[in-house]
Amino acid sequence: MRISRRELVKMGLAAGTALSTASAARAQAAPTAARTVRMVKTGGLRVFDPIFSAALITADHGAAIYDTLFSLDSRLMPQPQMVGKWGVSDDKKTYTFELRDGLGWHDGSPVTAADCVASIRRWGQVAPGGQLLMELAKDISKKDDKTFTITLKERLGLLSDILATVSTPCLFIMREKEATRPVTEQVTANIGSGPFKFNEALAKPGASFTYDRNDQYVPRSEAPDGLAGGKIVKVDRVIWDNIADEQTAIAALQSGEIDYFEQPSIDLLPMIESDPNLVLQVLDKAGEDMYLRINFLQKPFDDVKARQALLHLIDQEPILQAAFGNPKYFKTVTSIFGNGTLYSNDENTGWYKKGGDPEKAKQLFKEAGYAGEKVVILQPTNLPTFSNASQILAAALQKIGVNAELAPSDWGGIVARRANKGPVENGGWSLFITSDSDFVFGDPVGQVTLAANGDKGWYGWPTNDEYEALRAQWADVGTLEERKALARKMQRIWWDFVGDLRLGQFFSPVARRKTLTGLIGMPTIVPMWNMQKV
User: What DSSP line would sit under 269-320, residue for residue?
Assistant: First the structure.
């Protein structure tokens, strides 16, 4: 579905409740440059609801203005965040959570257990881990204003891990009146309880968005540790500038007009490294896995043979070379569980061949009954990594006679369009490329792209009941070795029905000025607390 410029502006301007006249006046009084951080993020922020969208930039927006019940520490273990005390019954089926003191919404009202219950229920409709929780839940209800319970039909030892997931959509807690909105409709009021407030008065859709320090936020007493511990904000304001042209963004970074540029192209890294005022920093040490999502609902990829053709057509190395240039920044990957997780394996990967097998791919398209249908590849022109990879993919398809066509737009346009389930003639799509942290592929319960549950699933809507039956067993498996065996079974089936394709692993550094310090490196989320300018 295409979104007009007028609709985008309306959506952006509606992205929060109106400030009072006095508040707006205060918002216009800009903090000093030393207390303001300017960032250029990957893609453009168009969807503000982090439950409605799994886009990483929307998750970063969510992490700024909302809070979570649990968060992952630097060892990737779940720790209480909004929760003060919690316990579990002797039969391990009833969990009781008590909110910590000092939690308040940006509008001045207190956070309540009812807000948490409504937020869990909304998130549970779309996130794979949440869907599992809702299937096993006998009851989720508030006990009093600060306490709620989750009662299960059967044990779920991974409950705190599920609540702390960094696989988007993450469980951000919203006010009850927003959390009761249908999950198919976007929340438009950016009122959270997190360490930053969204500055509605300074919102300039397409140009910049502003976040101000929440003076009323009470951080936990523990030191910051990954995404857990005290979320201490050390600046007064953070501005996300939308600069689509890379050269312009780098020039702004060099001159000090901005402090942070999220994903510079590999060919620009030597220039950045040579500047004594700039630093390259890999925040996600696990790296990211690039992958290709396939639309199961439309021709030709509603046929498994056409999807299998892609397995044989794709040659990861040229795609990685075009996207990242220097081999020290990338690796091939053939496991649906990534390269570096406990469950990475080589089951059913015989299709992988350096150089690919174009003739085999051509034969499989023929067996699928391919009749020249247009294949539309969504191409994010403001993300060179994915844009270059999309061009290589289109050329490979065209070479074997597939009517492949690029649909260029910025990333925000792709985030909007990929929700369209219709045919390409009605604004739909066939293929698009994106990425996630390698770490999250070790979590088939929480990672949206590892589900094959059709209409309930993520964009592409893959369906396979046999695979889903195995995925449903994940939370019940007791030992690491049993999970590894289960992972092999799941991967065997995945590569038979081809839920999506891996295109390789890469390690992409951010570029920042040396004066910007304290950035927290974690998978998926780039938090804005703890950073400061010196």
Answer: HHHHHH-TTEEEE-S-TT-EEEEEEE-TTSTTTTSHHHHHHHHHH--HHHHH
Compute mean pLDDT per 10 residues along the chain, 534 residues long, and list them.
34 38 47 94 90 93 98 95 97 97 97 98 95 95 98 92 94 98 94 98 96 98 96 98 92 97 88 96 93 98 98 94 82 96 96 94 98 97 90 97 97 91 96 95 93 94 97 88 96 98 93 97 95 94
Whether the Cβ atoms of residue 35 and residue 235 lie closer than 8 Å to each other: yes
For residue 399, which phi and psi values (nearest 5 degrees)? -65, -30
Non-local (6+) Cβ contacts of 371 within 8 A are none
Length of the chain: 534
Q: Give the C-alpha distances (Å, rounded to integers) separating 496 from 336, 377, 400, 499, 500.
A: 12, 23, 22, 9, 11
Q: CA angle 428-432-435, nearest 5°?
A: 140
DSSP 3-state assignment of 364? helix
Quote the CA–CA distance of 139 and 244 in Å, as a whole number.
47
Answer whether 379's CB lies under 8 Å from 387's CB.
Answer: yes
- C-alpha triplet 448, 451, 452: angle, nearest 5°: 140
Question: Which residues have C-beta within 8 Å of that of residue 40, sequence separation ≥ 6?
Answer: 240, 241, 242, 243, 249, 252, 253, 258, 260, 261, 262
- How would you list the strands of the sheet with 94-99, edge to edge? 83-88, 94-99, 147-152, 137-144
Residue 155 in contact with residue 92, Cβ under 8 Å? yes
What is the number of other CB atoms lying within 10 angstroms of the CB of residue 520? 19
Distances (CA, A) of 435 to 14, 19, 24, 372: 29, 36, 38, 29
Give the integer Cα–Cα distance in Å for 294 and 361.
16
| 8 A C-beta contact, residue 113 and residue 143 | yes
